[in-house]
Amino acid sequence: MSRAPRKPPLPPPDREARPGPFPVAAARTRALVLCPEKPNAVRDGRSERGRLDEAVGLAEAIALEVVAAQPVALRRPRPATLIGSGRVRAVGELVARERIDLVVVDAPLSAVQQRNLERAWSCKVIDRTGLILEIFGERARSSEGRLQVELAALTYQRSRLVRSWTHLERQRGGFGFLGGPGESQIELDRRRIDDRLIRIRRELDAVRRTRGLHRAARERAGYPAIALVGYTNAGKSTLFNRLTGAAVGARDQLFATLDPTMRVLDLPSGQQAILSDTVGFVADLPTDLIAAFRATLEEVRTADLVLHVRDMAHPESAAQRRDVLEVLRSLELGDLGDEGRLLEFWNKLDLLPAEDRAQLRSAAERQSATVCGSALTGDGIEALLALLDRNLSATAQVVELELDSADGERLAWLYRHGTVLERRDGDGRTHLRVALPAVEQARLWHDLRGSDGLPATRQNPSAGR
Question: What is the C-alpha to C-alpha distance for residues 360 and 394, in angstroms, rounded to an integer?
Answer without folding.
Answer: 26
